[in-house]
Amino acid sequence: MLPIDVDRAIGLFDAALRTVAGVHRPGRASPAEPHPEADLTAQARAHAAALMRVNHVGEVCAQALYQAQGLSARAAANRLALQQAAGEERDHLAWSAERIRELGGRTSLLNALWYAGSLAIGAAAGALGDRWNLAFLAETERQVEAHLAGHLERLEPQDQRTRALIEAMRADEHKHRASAIALGAAEIPEPLKLGMRALAKVMSTVAYRV
Ligand SMILES: [Fe+2]
Ligand SMILES: [Fe+2]
């Protein structure tokens, strides 16, 4: 029979609950802070809130991926790098949730579902070993970075609070990707990349609304 690590199981459960309930405290001040609130129309605010809801869902998934992959990463250096990135992802999660509240929106009703799905995918990638674990992570970060760049184009130019936040997150995702590659990530085969992109498209379309 497999020994069950109760502490680890409790830690995982606690992290999942905190993510879905949205009770994370950011370690760094929000990059939105120095910028004044723009005078936006109701429609522009609702659009910005929906885009931030999509980003928040991405960060919920990032929490699950890092939880799953941090548990299975075999090399100590990899585990450390993943933990550091996970800390920055927690900031993203808290910042996004805060910005959604400021804009008068709400986080996704399906967060528990997004989290569970990502945890399963992360665990599967982790089971293949560190190179694939990191490959999956690097490709996810690359896609999130591209996605955030797209959001900057769709946001009102004067919405500096939301823009500053997205730009800071984008810079972090770029760094996370570079560190996963530096740690020896394999290159994901093209069809799998396409599959990941299609899945992300479905998620972002749903999360924009729900
Ligand atoms: Fe992030
Ligand atoms: Fe990231």
Q: Tell me roughly what share of residues is in helical segments.
A: over 70%
Separate helix tally? 7
Number of strands: 0
User: Roughly how many Å is the radius of gyration?
Assistant: 17 Å
Strand-residue proportion: under 5%
User: Any idea what the shape is?
Assistant: globular
Which regions contain 5 or more consecutive residues with pLDDT less than 50? none
Structure classification: mainly alpha
Mean pLDDT comes to 87
Largest sheet: none
Q: What sequence of helices (H) and strands (E) makes up the elements?
A: HHHHHHH
Calculate the terminal CA-CA distance, rounded to whole Å. Answer: 42 Å
Could you tell me which ligands this complex binds, including any ions or cofactors?
fe (ii) ion
Short description:
Helices cover 76% and strands 0% of the residues. With 210 residues, it is mainly alpha-helical.
Task: Spell out the key features of this protein.
mainly alpha, binds fe (ii) ion, single chain, 210 residues
General description of the model:
The protein has 210 residues and is an all-alpha fold. It is built from 7 helices and no strands. It has helices spanning 6-21, 42-72, 76-102, 111-127, 130-154, 160-182, 190-209. Helix 2 (42-72) packs parallel to helix 4 and helix 2 packs across helix 7. The longest helix is centred in the first third of the chain and has 31 residues, at 42-72. The protein is globular, with a radius of gyration of 17 Å. The protein starts with 5 loop residues before the first helix and ends with a helix. The structure holds fe (ii) ion (2 copies). The site of one fe (ii) ion has 7 residues, from helix 3 and helix 6. One fe (ii) ion binds next to helix 3 and helix 6.
